[in-house]
Amino acid sequence: MIHQDIHLMEEHRTICFVSPHNAYLSMGLSRHGRAWFITWARAYGMLDNNKARVFCRLNNPSSPRDRQQKPNCFWFNTDSMLFTNAYKMILESEPTIARKTGRKRMERMNGDPWYAQEIECEEIEVLMPEWGLLRQCFYCFDLETEDQGTPDPGLRRFQKCEGWLDRDCYWCQICQEKGWFSSYTMKLQQILSGEVIWWNIYSENVLVFRAMRRFGFLLRKFGLFST
């Protein structure tokens, strides 16, 4: 395989990588706040829809100490059952997207429901520029693909949301054309009807989603809301 320099790639296009530890299927990285994710670069025809393409979460940024960490670094602590596989995927990839900094610390194991087990976590530095990350729509949860940013007008990069949603929140072209009110209304309808894909990079909203989903269950139970 020909080695590629990640810094010579065309700017404003998504950057994807392959690894022998994932059968050379095209993957990408996504980020929201201080949380990092491996995402499928496309659906490959095996997933239900474009919204369920998050492969795994790579870290658990719950410590206040993480706020002083460089924005392109994280402590590897995945919630994937394929712990070793995810680790090797990001460190043995083409092009090279990450490297170890040499620093380590102990953390509660991510994915352990009781957070009882402590593991040694290595600090990982992401070499991929911010513009190369795959973005997810805050409203409909669609993810960009490996072709995003090409001259095709239907594959325009997701843009940052306006106003109060501008912190690492993006929206796709369809939701942008609908406007934030219509898009948010659609999102609430999905939550109330139980159609929301929970496995997404906006996981910090999961408590709100669960509360809304329970509220929707009560509305349906008493015949006040129909799907």
Strand order of the largest sheet: 1-2-3
| Overall number of domains | 2
Low-pLDDT residue spans: 205-209
Instruction: Give a count of the beta strands, DSSP E runs of length 2 or more.
Output: 8
- How would a textbook summarize the main sheet? 3 strands, antiparallel
- SSE run: EEEEHEEEEHHH
Shape: globular
Indicate the topology.
Layout: E1 27-32, E2 35-40, E3 54-57, E4 73-75, H1 83-91, E5 98-108, E6 118-126, E7 159-160, E8 170-171, H2 173-178, H3 180-193, H4 206-221
Antiparallel strand pairs: 1-2, 2-3, 4-6, 5-6, 7-8
Helix pairs in contact: 3-4
In words, what does this structure look like?
This protein has helices at residues 83-91, 173-178, 180-193, 206-221, and strands at residues 27-32, 35-40, 54-57, 73-75, 98-108, 118-126, 159-160, 170-171. By secondary structure, it is of the alpha+beta class. It folds into 2 domains: 6-132, no CATH class; 153-221, no CATH class. The strands form 3 sheets. Strands 1-2-3 form a 3-stranded antiparallel beta sheet, with no helix packed on it. Strands 4-6-5 form a 3-stranded antiparallel beta sheet, with no helix packed on it. Strands 7-8 form a two-stranded antiparallel ribbon. β1 and β2 (35-40) form a beta hairpin. The longest helix has 16 residues, at 206-221. It is globular. It starts with 26 loop residues before the first strand and ends in a 6-residue tail after the last helix. The model is unreliable at 205-209 (pLDDT under 50).
